[in-house]
From TrEMBL:
Pfam annotation, one family: SQS_PSY
Protein name: Phytoene synthase
InterPro entries linked: Isoprenoid_synthase_dom_sf, Squ/phyt_synthse, Squalene/phytoene_synthase_CS, Trans_IPPS_bact-type, Trans_IPPS_HH
Cofactor field: ATP
Keyword annotations from UniProtKB, A to Z: Carotenoid biosynthesis, Transferase
Gene Ontology molecular functions: geranylgeranyl diphosphate synthase activity; squalene synthase [NAD(P)H] activity
Family (UniProt): Belongs to the phytoene/squalene synthase family.
Species this chain originates from: Roseovarius nanhaiticus
């Protein structure tokens, strides 16, 4: 039986009301993914909507909450409950628990996402592009790897290319949001790049302006993303046939944001790159054409490129090797435990200072 046939036979186990809630969350909160998801087969689209709704809720709670440390620690407790089979009483948690159980989602993947959110709560900055890739692996490639699990894909080469796509999409997001992040007191541009340009991060955040040097950094991020977008295409033919259009669509829609940034002179401080409905329809058509032709194309050598060093742990968490699948419930890396411990200490210190005040 094919992977998609297996999905139909089993179903995804998500309650209809919870799925409707997740669909509404994505429709209002993530237009790019909502557009791409419309051309996924229902057997993949429905659990993908539940996955993205849970990830979106998690991201929003950390980004928008008054106490980021508490938000991350709360997410850790919710994840524990999901893997214990006793999710919290929210549609996102119940839907996510259903797909964790149905698809045996390796715990290392949502825990990688949680670690990335913890880095956000710490307001961590990134010294180098490699460090930024490590962050992108956690907040974006982990989701791409989870999508592969939903599609029944555990091939190491396909997983590596899915992780490439995740990093490319996150680098595009960072390039688009330089000004918005700076005004919110955040900076994701590699500190090495800023030092080389003679730009002080604190001064830039206090007065974000589209200096030529900052525009050059935006262009550099987009260049890195473009290489990964191109490499990611090699993995799409290894996905279930009916899912390929949707994944190509995600690739082209997000790359289109980068194209808009280039058209506005790489100014992501005074301008915000936006794409329109007609553009998205065009990319959907292009995606369908690519998907139709993918079965006829020979496998490119880039399919077999090793994963980025920063995403290799995600591939290892999912890939079947020598006929053995990794333990789906194993997680809690030492790095994550240390990050959560640091957040607990940070939150406790903040509470003590508040009481003294």
């Amino acid at each position: 039986m094919s992977a998609l046939g297996l999905y139909r036979a089993r179903g995804h186990g998500i309650a209809p009301g919870d799925l409707a809630h997740c669909r509404a969350v994505i429709r209002t909160g993530s237009l790019s993914f909502h557009t791409a998801s419309r051309v996924l087969p229902a057997a993949v689209r429905d659990p993908a909507l539940a996955l993205y709704a849970f990830c979106r809720l998690s991201d929003d709670e950390v980004d928008e909450g008054g106490n980021k440390a508490q938000a991350v620690l709360g997410l850790g407790r919710r994840l524990d409950a999901v893997y214990a089979g006793a999710p919290g009483d929210t549609p996102e948690d119940r839907a996510f628990a259903a797909i964790v159980a149905r698809y045996k989602m390796p715990r290392a993947l949502p825990e990688a996402l949680l670690e990335g959110l913890a880095w956000d709560a710490e307001e961590r900055r990134y010294e180098s592009l490699a460090d930024l890739n490590a962050y992108s692996a956690r907040v974006a490639s982990a989701v791409g790897a989870m999508m592969c699990v939903l599609m029944g894909v555990r091939d190491a080469h396909a997983l590596a290319r899915a992780c490439d796509l995740g990093v490319a999409m996150q680098l595009t997001n960072i390039a688009r949001d330089v000004g918005e992040d700076a005004r919110a007191g955040r900076i994701y541009l590699p500190l090495q790049w800023l030092r080389e340009a003679g730009i002080d991060p604190e001064a830039f955040m206090a007065d974000p302006t589209p200096h030529p040097e900052i525009r050059a950094m935006v262009a550099r991020l987009l260049g890195e993303a473009r290489k990964l977008y191109l490499r990611s295409e090699a993995g799409v033919p290894r996905l279930p046939r009916r899912a390929r259009t949707g994944i190509y669509a995600a690739r082209f829609i997000y790359a289109g944001i980068g194209a808009e940034l280039r058209r506005q002179g790489h100014d992501s401080i005074t301008l915000r790159a936006r794409t329109g409905k007609l553009q998205k329809l065009g990319w959907l058509g292009k995606s369908a054409a690519y998907a139709a032709g993918s079965a006829l194309m020979p496998q490119p050598a880039t399919l077999f490129a090793p994963p980025l060093p920063e995403t290799a742990f995600l591939v290892d968490a999912v890939a079947e090797r020598d006929g053995r699948a990794p333990g789906w419930g194993i997680g809690r890396t030492g790095a994550l435990l240390q990050t959560l411990a640091d957040l607990k200490a940070q939150d406790a210190m903040g509470g003590q200072q508040g009481r003294r005040a």
